[in-house]
Amino acid sequence: MIDQRLFEEFRDVGRDIYVGGMTSSHGGNVSVRVGKRIIIKRRGAQLGRLKPSDFVTTILNGEDSGVTLASSELIVHRAIFQKTNALAIVHCHPPTAVALSLTRDEIVPIDNECSYLLHRIPVLSAEYSSGSPQMAAIVSDALREYKLIMLRGHGVFAIGQTLDEALQWVSAFEMGCNIIYKVETLGSKLIEFRKHSESYSSW
User: Fold this and answer.
1) In CATH, what number is assigned to the domain containing residue 156?
2) Where would I find the H helices in the chain?
3) Helix (H, G, I), strand (E, B) or coil at 167
4) In the chain, N or C terminus with fewer CB closer than 10 Å?
5) Chain centre to alpha carbon of residue 91
């Protein structure tokens, strides 16, 4: 069993991701690093209905019995924790962000909040995009430089010092993607309101 306060953070963040329409019922996963161990959602658990029994504790390096029950993305979470200073990871499948990832190689927000928080989000591709070593290497390397990255056709990985911080990046990103989609659907010329916005795509 995990600490009650930590469980409540997992539960609340998982619920907010699902209720916010940022993943399907059983999609996505969340994890935290505690010393040399990882606590991660178990395979098949519903993100919007998490229970204390839905978490697996496993070692950061090496193999143990927790591996068999952990999320299929454990290999990616391990690589991220090994290569960055993150203490928390949120992975989910926000639909508008996924749709935009199929049409471009980077997503540059046009709204104020997402521009300020994220500037530019790279869209990465992996031939095998569900818990593969290739995916783990690509995602973890990119998160050395970014708070959040988009895996084409799959979903986002966001890092933070807390789950709530990682959730903030994901939520702002999906909102930013929704705004891009709506503006492009309108078909009107974008009226720029930000100073130095031309530099955002090179950040």
Assistant:
1) 3.40.225.10
2) 4-19, 74-83, 95-101, 112-118, 133-142, 163-186
3) helix
4) N
5) 4
